[in-house]
């Protein structure tokens, strides 16, 4: 049977928990050092270590059969993949936040304002659903500093504890999306017995944690 490939984050917030989950599934492999591919010695599987942003497309295109990535990245890239299992880590929410001294009070006040974000696709959908028109300023990082620089009136960014918002003089205003890490697979491959076996193992690891 064909060796499967699973894509996980190379380094960052999801790497450690993804590796731990796979090890707890009884898979034996080396964590990312310099090689981007690590073979599993006791299962027909290879681990690909990638930037999280690239994982959904690798899975959609069939370069990888499976992936572990935040729901936020899947929605932002708009790929067609199947959601196999929520994994209970990497929890965060995408929120609109405003400066502490902002005059914005209701959703309607966002109309015509500039909102900085790394998630333009998700934000645009949210604005549309709420019949709002705002100027979306797409930036790739350090979104929190943009209101202080006069570049935006609000931001839309991932928040877990809220500490980063606070230290930049911002406060949460409204929730756009809640997210956690999920196991995804290529559409149409769900019945592959090796994939089924892995899903079973993941589910029993998660049950043992309850
Ligand atoms: P990469 O180098 O792989 O592109 P990154 O910098 O885009 O990494 P990380 O900051 O490592 O990404 O975050 C990975 C994922 O962790 C996010 O997409 C999100 O699903 C989740 N996450 C959980 N809490 C937070 C948080 N407070 N801020 C950002 N992401 C979070
Ligand atoms: Zn990323």
Describe what you observe in this structure:
By secondary structure, the chain is an alpha/beta fold. It folds into two domains: 4-90 and 180-209, Periplasmic binding protein-like II (D-Maltodextrin-Binding Protein, domain 2, 3-Layer(aba) Sandwich), CATH 3.40.190.10; 92-179, Periplasmic binding protein-like II (D-Maltodextrin-Binding Protein, domain 2). The protein is 26% helix and 30% strand. The chain contains six helices and eleven strands. It has helices at residues 15-24, 55-60, 71-77, 120-129, 163-167, 193-209, and strands at 4-9, 37-39, 45-50, 66-70, 82-86, 92-99, 114-117, 135-138, 154-159, 170-179, 181-185. A six-stranded mixed sheet has the order 2-3-1-4-11-5. The longest helix is centred in the last third of the chain and has 17 residues, at 193-209. The protein is elongated. 36% of the residues are buried. The mean pLDDT is 96. Zinc ion is lined by residues 51-53.
Quick summary of this structure?
By secondary structure, this protein is α/β, with parallel strands linked by helices. It is built from 6 helices and 11 strands.
Question: Any descriptors?
Answer:
210 residues; alpha/beta; D-Maltodextrin-Binding Protein, domain 2; 2 domains; six-stranded mixed β-sheet; five-stranded mixed β-sheet; 6 helices; 11 strands; 30% strand; elongated; binds adenosine-5'-triphosphate; binds zinc ion
Assembly annotation = single chain
Query: CATH superfamily of the largest domain, please?
Result: Periplasmic binding protein-like II
Number of helices: 6
Largest sheet: 6 strands, mixed
Ions, cofactors and other ligands present here are: adenosine-5'-triphosphate, zinc ion
Weakly predicted, low-confidence segments: none
What is the helix/strand order?
Answer: EHEEHEHEEEHEEHEEH
Radius of gyration: 19 Å
CATH class of the largest domain reads: Alpha Beta
Number of strands: 11
- Count of discrete structural domains: 2
For the residues shown, what is the average pLDDT?
A: 96
Strand order of the largest sheet: 2-3-1-4-11-5
CATH topology of the largest domain: D-Maltodextrin-Binding Protein, domain 2
The level of helicity is 25-40%
Structural class computed from helices and strand pairing: alpha/beta
Q: Based on CA inertia axes, which overall geometry fits?
A: elongated
